[in-house]
Amino acid sequence: MSVTGIFPEVVVDLDGHPIHIKELAKLHVLILITLKAGWCPVCPQLLQILNIYGLQNEPPEIFQDPFNRSIIAKVPPEDLPFNRLLLKSDAYFIIICPGPADEVRRIQELCNFSKYPYPFIVDEDLSLASHIGLRMSRTEILPFIGHIYPETRMIFPINWGRGPGIYGHDKLLKYLYGYRIRVEKKAFEHVSKAKELEIPFKKVTDTILSIGNLENRTFQKQIFPIELFAQVFEYIESREMMKTVMATCRQWRAIGFDIISMRMRQAVNDVLESLVTDPQINRGDVNKIYKIILPADKKAISVHELDLRIKDLDIITEIIWRLVAQTPVIME
């Protein structure tokens, strides 16, 4: 279920800068956080907790709720790298508060959010809150955490309400974890499909290369070395290569097959190296939380970048599937 209304395409932040929502939502898991009012002492605690869970570079180990003195967060140091991946690479935050502006800026600075790129939106007349169905009263916004979808700018609710000891950070982290797992599960499935083509494509490639080598030996007026052609063709986009270069002659087709094969291996490796979860876990329940420890030397990327790598792999996979399907006809 989504919140009533659709988030505007552009809003203006506390400093007067336009914020293009659709573009941000395409690049990140765009998380909307609303604060009830500038005077509310409870809502900013969520931002403090997010600092402790990984937004802050050197966070304190625990967060003690100022209202009931309970320990809200005790984050082991080994958990911080994965938390940071979720909070700083995958997610991007936009915070809305009724105002006035100086009160919103005070909250931003108090929570150390002034050093982050996350925009704070002053909704003094609550027109934005009304537009997205989160107006609570004449002067207050309903405390809320949600995900703004890139395609529609509709808002998927992650957590409603906020109070002492109940800030919604756990549901937010679980949501980001689940989102990451789903993308990595998709990545693993697409790699598996690509690998299914390895054997048939190798047979086709070996055949094409043998014919290409034979033609190369019998072609008496070779103007350029075949290695030079290969280097030039590497700069051509894969789909364009299939349409033009590989349709020119069998010799060029052989070079194209070799380059496509190399790109396939690279695309598979790029995706696999980007995964931070166990593929066996990915096959299970994405709603179940598993402890994930990122190695210190792991170069993790955001889910957006991973999704781009999956799309690159899909392009190569589709090309290889077509080549495997078409080659028997071409070889006759």
UniProtKB/TrEMBL annotation:
Sorted alphabetically, which SUPFAM superfamilies does this protein's record hold?
Thioredoxin-like (SSF52833)
InterPro entries tied to this protein: Thioredoxin-like_sf
Q: Domain of life here?
A: Eukaryota
What protein name does the entry list?
F-box domain-containing protein
